[in-house]
Design brief:
Order of helices and strands: HHH
Mean pLDDT: 86
Shape: rod-shaped
Helix content: over 70%
Low-confidence stretches: none
Oligomer: single chain
Radius of gyration: 36 Å
Number of strands: 0
Number of helices: 3
Length: about 110
Amino acid sequence: MQDAARRLLSRYGRHLLVIFVVVLLVHDVFGPHGYLVMRRKQQEIQKVNSQLDKLNKENVELEQQVKDLKTDPQTIRKIAREELGLAQAGEIIIKLPAQQPENPAAKP
């Protein structure tokens, strides 16, 4: 029995080893924890990190705006003038109608 097993191993051992190595390589590349999956996860992590950086910058800007709204009189005046249409004493506000985009096809 051992003699027959040795003959089979000596005859097909290299082929079995090559097949085993190929299966391991395919699993390492395409498997659930393989190279391609890990690469995709790294790209997703980079994308999420860039979104996080963008949101952090936006958060800092919004915090600055809140601080300005609480403490800076110029910012408060600017918003009062632009958004609420308020004026200082002695000023006159003239509101113009919003311009309608011209439609060249509608002209005769």
